[in-house]
Design a protein that fits this description.
Layout (H helix, E strand, L loop, with lengths): L3 E3 L10 H10 L17 H11 L6 H17 L2 E8 L2 H4 L5 H19 L2 E9 L3 H11 L9 E5 L11 H9 L3 E6 L5 H9 L5 E4 L7 H10 L2 E4 L1 H6 L12 H6 L3 E4 L4 H4 L3 H11 L7 H11 L4 H18 L10
Parallel strand pairs: 1-2, 2-3, 3-4, 4-5, 5-6, 6-7, 7-8
Bound molecules: adenine (ADE) and zinc ion.
């Protein structure tokens, strides 16, 4: 597998059915009714309904640690060398789960992965759009005791009807605190949401961004500023925001337009695969030529929030992988 960076994965979206059953039993809870409801979904909200119902089995620090460890072990096997993972604290604190159980469980597992796999990691706390800006601001204040352990903030959950500009104040506060800022935009909603994420929130990366392609001026800005787009092809198929076949996915258009697009897994327990599965599926479907897989890894590493030294290490690993395959170096020779 190409060494790469995972930049768009929701930890709660890595909750596999066997772990749901284990946690339900351990916590004395019924197995959620929708445990086996899998892709495709009619739309984002239909998926989110299943996702929020299933994550109810997560109750203790140990649960969050096990979830995170299982994901990181799987990611390491997929070639991931650096992972910036999303967590949705409000989906847990709203159920009465202590914030400390969530963050200490996740952070402990992230630390342990460094020793086990040499994985570097970062944690991005996402605000749930459907709970509104005041709840997001409260969440940011609540996580401040962990400020030094957090990489950044993000914005996720139901998109249409919750434009980025609603979250202007909380993102400004995050910027003051020196946190990195990312936002889901242009997944279901149009290019106006991507503009707002950039111009109002100061988002440094756009999660998805597919619908930016509908606006030529926006495409030009994304290209000129080389704003990273973290694209999730299997997610887009599962939620019917692209497709119906992977070959119809706009990834190759994004790359042809000179955008800094990279491929990620979003909610791999729900959408049919982890990063290795996704890249294989793209190649098999002819959505991108095999020769582009190295470039996607380079784009991911260029989009990561890492030090220059770590970026160089990751790029060197990609160059070495290409050399081992007898391929041109994608770090120097873009496909
Ligand atoms: N694909 C997605 N879009 C928005 N919010 C999410 N939360 C988990 N997966 C998501
Ligand atoms: Zn996402």
């Amino acid at each position: 597998m190409w060494p790469t960076a995972e930049l768009h994965v929701h930890l709660e979206g890595t909750l596999e059915p066997p772990l749901i059953r284990t946690l339900a039993q351990r916590n004395g809870l019924p197995v959620p009714a929708g445990i086996d409801d899998r892709a495709p979904y009619p739309d984002l909200q239909a998926f989110l309904d299943v996702y929020y119902a299933n994550l109810d089995v997560l109750r203790t620090e140990r649960d969050f640690a096990e979830l995170t460890t299982a994901y990181l072990d799987r990611a390491a096997a997929a070639g991931v060398r650096h992972a910036e993972v999303f967590v949705d604290p409000q989906s847990h604190t709203d159920r009465g789960v202590p914030l400390a159980a969530v963050l200490n469980g996740v952070l402990g597992a992230l630390d342990a992965a460094r020793d086990r796999h040499g994985l570097t990691t970062g944690l991005i706390v996402c605000f749930l759009r459907h709970l509104g800006p005041e709840a997001a601001a409260d969440t940011l204040e609540a996580v401040l005791p962990w400020r030094d352990r957090l990489l950044g903030v993000g914005l996720d959950s139901a998109e249409v009807g919750y434009p980025p500009s609603l979250f202007r104040t909380v993102f400004a506060r995050a910027a003051e605190l020196g946190l990195r800022r990312v936002a889901h935009a242009g997944e279901e909603a149009g290019p106006d949401y991507v503009w707002e994420a950039l111009d109002v929130l100061g988002a440094e990366r756009i999660d998805h961004g597919n619908r930016a392609l509908e606006d030529a001026e926006l495409v030009a800005v994304l290209r000129e500023r080389q704003v990273p787009l973290t694209v999730c092809p299997l997610s887009n198929l599962a939620l019917r925001t692209a497709g119906p076949d992977l070959a119809d996915h706009p990834l190759s258009v994004m790359l042809d337009e000179g955008l800094l697009a990279s491929v990620h897994s979003d909610d791999p327990a729900y959408f049919g695969g982890y990063l290795d599965d996704t890249l294989r599926a793209l190649a098999v479907a002819g959505a991108v030529p095999e020769s582009v897989l190295g470039r996607l890894a380079v784009n991911a590493v260029r989009s990561a929030f890492v030090t220059d030294a770590r970026r160089t290490e990751l790029l060197d690993a990609i160059s070495a992988h290409a050399a081992g395959l007898g391929l041109p170096d994608p770090v120097r020779v873009p496909a």
